[in-house]
Predict the structure of DUF4251 domain-containing protein.
Amino acid sequence: MKTYKVAMVFLLFFNVLTGFSQEKTRKQLRIEKSIEKKKEIEKLIDAKEFQFVARNLNSQTFRMVDLSIIPNFIQFKPDFIKSEMPFFGRGFSGLGYGGSDTGLKFEGKPEKFVVNKQKKGYQIDVAVKGQQDFFNITLSVLFEGSSTLTIISNNRESISYFGEISPLEEEEKK
C-alpha cells in the first residue's frame, strides 16, 4: 500500500510539472499572435480584396478628428474601388459650397493598383477617377495591422486617415 501511495504522489507530481512546463509565456503568446496577424495581412494583400476603416483622421487645416462614431470605409478590389470617407478640410475649384458633396464618396475602376512589399509592411498605390475628381490613394499597411491612408485629390487638399484593414464585409442580400 505504501508503494502505491508513493507511486500516486510521483505521478501526480509529474503531471503537475509537465502541465506547467507546457504553458506558454506571455511573450510566446504575443509572438504567435503577431505571426498570425502577419499571415492574415499577407493573405488580404495578396488577394487584393480588403477594406480600410479609419479610426481617426488628420487634415492640413484640422487637428486629429475621432471617426469612431462616423461610419467610413474604402473598399479595395483590383477592378473596383469604393470610398465612403468623410472629409474635413479645404476644397478648391469644382466643389459647390454647402451642396450635396459630403465627403470623399466615389467609386470607379482603378487606373493604377500597385502593391509594394517593404521591410515592415506593404505600400499600395491606387489611382481612381471619380465622376468629378481624380484621386491618388496611398495605403501603408504594417504587418501588425495598423494602416495609414492618404488621399490626394485635384479639388481638395490632401488628407490622412489612420485605421486598420480587414476582409470585405459581404453585402446583405435583399
The domain at 48-166 is CATH 2.40.128.410 (Lipocalin). The radius of gyration is 25 Å.
